[in-house]
Amino acid sequence: MEKDKRHECTQYGRTQYEQEIRQMEGLLRMGRSFDLVGKSMEIGGKKAMLYFVDGFAKDEMMEKMMEYLMKLTPEQADVPSAEAFARQNISYLEASVSEDPAAMVTAILSGQLCLLCEWYAGGILIDARTYPVRGVSEPEDDRVLRGARDGFVETLVFNTALIRRRIRDPRLTMEIVTAGESSHTDIVLCYMAGRADSAFLSRLREKIRQMGADALPLGQQSLAEELVRFGINPFPRIRYTERPDAAAASVLEGSVAVLVDNSPSVMLLPVSIFDFTQDTNDYYFPPLVGSYLRLVRGIIFLLTIFFTPVWYLLTKHPEVLPQWAGFLLIKEPGDLPVIWQLLVLEFVIDGLKLASLNTPAPLAGTFSVVGALVLGDFAVKAGWFVPEVVLYMAFVAISNFTQPSFELGYAFKLFRILLLVLIAVGDVWGFVGGLALLAATLAATRTLSGRCYLYPLVPFNGRALLRLILRMPSKRGE
């Protein structure tokens, strides 16, 4: 009687197992992709199937695990559930159980191993994946004279480890969510519990979960466009960094770091325009030197947007200049009007930037230097441009690199072009109108937390503004 009952249970388990195999192979479209592998084997005299993606699995670990499982006796493998089997026979640390076929498929395509067996319903998911990864070398566009030389990479778990290595506090929270119907991209919200704004965290979490995007093919940029409706406002509401030390410092100050799988940049939220005046180098120098560097950066911020428009306005009204400042005026006018010289050079500089991006690395430096010298020299000799315009535009172009945010640099560039056009059309009143438009845009812009983009200037917070403008010495206990 017991033998017949055991045979009946075994037959039921085999039927259920075969149904699960057919369902899984249908969902994975086995046989269509060469890198999707299903390894058939026997565990304790029963059939089992191991699904994985070739290239994501650790070969040595898989070999040891399969060798152990295939040596199990029927008594060792005979367990009532997948949870019991995983608890007794899977020694790997990261193992979980699922009975949802869709969840198992997503896990397999993410790189996990999935073990199905006749003994139990559902599958055991073993996170023994490994991704191709480059070295954690220092970022190219955010270097420091002193300090750490590591940087974020495209593998999410490596990036979280780089931050946790610097913050050994249990309040550091790494909350993972998934977005994208097709890509199922992993996104981590990294924050300090008790320091980050809980209301902002709730809104951010809800925005990510309600995204209707099918995929995030461009990583953090795809996510940014889902979180922020940019419209015609060019000012960035997100600050990016590829430095773990900068991200860790921002998290300790109460910001939220958003890490997206396959992206070497971390998004820091929320940010105001004054946050872009900070740089990692400021904190690797004494407070006095760091404050000086920050003030220089702030002054250059203003010069990059106002230098050429104010100079152009002065060339239209040379009578307002004192005699000692006469060197600012154009000595020999060129064939093109000054406004066209300025606008053409704005576009030429961007053209050279784009060309250098597509130039092979060994030739990029030579191309940039030779191209700028040759074009500038021959343009002046041909009479197209005057030397003053070339000089001042070169200063503005180089000054944009004093801060690492390309988005903010182009926001300033667009408003600089707008000011030039308004001055050409409306003279002094055009300049005043451009200033009013710039001030209104900044005042109307809101960070992702809903606070004014000009905070801590509007609303005014003197202590916070001072800490952003100057590199204040750390207090004991901070």
Architecture overview:
With 478 residues, the chain is an alpha+beta fold. The chain contains 15 helices and ten strands. The protein has helices spanning 2-28, 59-70, 74-77, 82-89, 101-109, 156-164, 198-209, 220-227, 244-252, 287-316, 338-357, 361-381, 387-399, 406-444, 462-469; strands at residues 36-43, 46-53, 95-98, 113-117, 123-126, 172-179, 185-192, 239-241, 256-260, 266-269. Strands 1-2-4-5-3 form a five-stranded antiparallel sheet, with helices on both faces. It has a five-stranded antiparallel sheet with strand order 6-7-9-10-8, with helices on both faces. Helix 6 (156-164) crosses helix 9 (244-252). The protein starts with a helix and ends in a 9-residue tail after the last helix.
What are the key terms here?
478 residues, 10 strands, 12% strand, 15 helices, alpha+beta, 5-stranded antiparallel sheet
Output the helix-strand order.
HEEHHHEHEEHEEHHEHEEHHHHHH
- Percent of residues in beta strands: 5-15%
Q: Roughly how many Å apart are the termini? A: 74 Å
Number of strands: 10
Taking the sheet with the most strands, its summary is: 5 strands, antiparallel
Helix/strand/pairing class, anyone?
alpha+beta
Counting copies of identical and different chains, the oligomeric state is single chain
Mean pLDDT: 84
Q: What is the number of helical segments per DSSP (H or I, 4+ residues)? A: 15
User: Which regions are unreliable across 5 or more consecutive residues at pLDDT < 50?
Assistant: 1-10
Principal-axis shape equals elongated
The helical percent reads: 40-55%
Strand order of the largest sheet: 1-2-4-5-3
Our Rg estimate from Cα atoms comes to 30 Å
